[in-house]
Amino acid sequence: MLRRVATRLATGALTLVLVTALVFALIQLAPGSPLGATEDGLKPLTADERAALTRLWRLDLPLHRQYVLWLGDVLDGDLGRSILDRRPVATKIAERLPITLTLNAIALFLIVALSIPIGAAAALNPGSRADRWGGVATYLLYAVPVFWGALLLQRLFSVWLGWLPLYGSGGVEGIPRPSHLVLPVVCLSYGGLAYVSRFVRANLLESIPAETVLSARARGMSRLAILYRHGFRLAAVPMLTLAGFLIPALFAGSVIVESVFQLPGLGWLFLEAAYERDFPVLLGITLISGTATLAGILFADVAYALADPRVRRA
Amino acid sequence: MKIGCRVFLAIALACLSIACRSNQGSSDTGASGPSVVRMHLPKDPASMSLIGKTDLNTEIVAMRLTDALVQHDEKLVIRPLLAESFDLSVENKTITFRLRDNVRWHDGEPVTADDVLFTIAKLREPETENRSWAPDLSALTSLEAPDDRTIVATYSEINADALEAWRTPILPEHIAAKDADLFNGEFARHPIGCGPFKFVHYIRGQEIVMEANDDYWGGRPEIDRLEIKIFSDQQTAYQALMMGDLDIMVMSSNLWKQVDESPQAERFVRTSYMRYSVWALGWNQRESSFFSDARVRRAMVLALDRESFIENVAEGMAHIGATTFPPSSIWAAPDVEPYGYDPDEARRLLTEAGWVDTDGDGVRERDGRRLAFSLLVARGSQQLTEWMSAWQQQSWAAIGAEMTIDQLEWQTHRERRKALDFDVAAQAFHITDPNMTTLYHSDSMQDGYNFWGTNDPEIDRLLEAVRYTFDPDERLAEMHRLQRRLHEQEPVTALFFFVAPLVYDKRLEGVRPSPLGYANTIHGPREWSWAQEASR
Predict the structure, then answer these.
(1) What's the CA gap between B312 and B78, in Å, rounded?
(2) S-S: B299 plus which of A54, B287, B349, B469, CB 3.0-4.6 Å?
(3) Domains defined along chain A, listed by start
(4) Chain B contacts in chain A segment 65-104 (CB below 8 A)
């Protein structure tokens, strides 16, 4: 078990290096430069200024040298400074991380907590009217793009009904007030909810053959008890894997949700940095979200082993 | 399904009840509370250091918190502000400023000439990366303060726009000098100035809150509090306006129309002002380009029915430009009229320039080369950009020119222009002064924005004349001459000057939009007030 985790950690670190190297190369090879972003609509940079800035941001070095230097700084605990406002990248990320973490943690919890009962309820009576309509509803939900869903929810709950705030964190720095989290969390989770509940339903149905249900029913077990006894343990395995993969999907959703709801989290920062070619910030966020993703997968892996003795022994 | 439903409902209800409760806490303060105006800002300022990495948003914030020696009025004439007078001496190459007496920083310390010296020194440090004013101070050789209220700036070379750079916001030396790092120091966390508003707090991505400065030398602002609300998403900002969370904003023309159709239309003033922001086509004039011949450039403009485009597509929200000098500005030459719509003349000019359709495919040729080129345009959020491109494509097809649209992301667009890899490029320019050297001077091909390769000795001469003529009347005459030459040569076509649709609460008084915006002149929020019984 320990060896397994150690191997995973090693490959994880290697993956992170590769991912950041790839992102680094992509940013630098993309047209446009951070120097261009600094002179937008203003007076052009003189040759001297351009040279000074190029040196400052190490743009004069070959790509691999730039990357190695960046990596060295990161190992020393320095993520560098933002090109946009010269503030330390670590500070910028630390300021915004709580918002994104809160949003995603709640969304992840809601997805898991709600999709299991919903999926199970559908699996209890496959083919029933409730199951079929539930299926239609979840597919519809899955198909609604987040930016549009967000707009509809804003119109309904903020503008017409006036129940929920439209935007922002409610005048506080860091984690928004609870009321300000409701709509963003709903937007962030409904797609995953729809997807995972279908997944749960399919898995439960697959893992409990109809004969098992029949014989268990004959022994006098309730449908719920059958699901609980026979279904969940088996279905839990693929579920865990899925939960690990939800993390990057949620982060991607954060980018949209945060900018629509005006929540200054990591997703918004990422978008802003991408427009400005602020590569130290982009790399810093990639590193963080990459680590989170790998940690999620590692967690899923370990949980997988705990839930399934076959994996543990292998 | 039942279990799922119940759990879901329970959670949803719990969330809603929390939401409703906390919502009440932050509701309106009512008529008896302080008077607050909430204005929109589309983006966080680059920094709160007021002079570092300045962009338009930084300037809007900085102008509230602190004063500059001079500032634009609504006609873009430079007026004294923190300086009570200034004197530009051409023969000595100096500007002498006399500071107002008894102006104090928000912490009570007096504003002195040393603060100005400090600010300018800081501004010129490369680390400050100031792009707004520092470049105009490159010819500054010395800056001295003979006494507490006098500043003498000496230049190695002085031009008629030298005062522009003195719109720099002034920083308090006794506070800002303590920070080794301007961007991350104490000052940038809690900026102190001498302007009409005092800094209260800033929540990134949310709001910048300021309160009236009781001791402002020009008199305390009428309103008690100014809240600058940051909305990067226009839709959200619009909804905020509808809900009364925002009092004034510039919006896109579709949203502007929506305001009129909304049930709350009567709550707002819906107006617009012409910005000195021009949507321009820059023609690549280098040898071997399609557009090295001025006749071809003029033909392209003559083929465009701009009036009907404004009426039918832009819904009247634009003005036609003759040159990049804004129409109805104090600089505009009255005798330079924009080219009208005349496709026959356009065809004649093309034929005269040697472009004839010999093979009957609808596209003209010359020396075996088809008149087929591409328009470089940046992908924007504005649908209008796409409509403009399509309209140009059609209009030019009608005179025998084939145009393809090369729509690129903004950074790529810039790189292509820089690499001179284009035929004609569309982009917006923001005009703040009549000095257009960086756009047209042949020396600006290297270090400026003359991507089109305009290389006309007459234009160069006139640009310099505008730059170095100090007598206002003579200078204006040179500007008019320059416009005539530009109109004849048409190196850049000033297609449209767009109008900014502005919406604000109709009880808000004292809003004076100018081509620079509604908050970028010596006027702005400091003169705003709520109509009687409307304070909020």
Answers:
(1) 38
(2) B349
(3) 2-75 (no CATH), 89-309 (1.10.3720.10)
(4) 84-88, 95
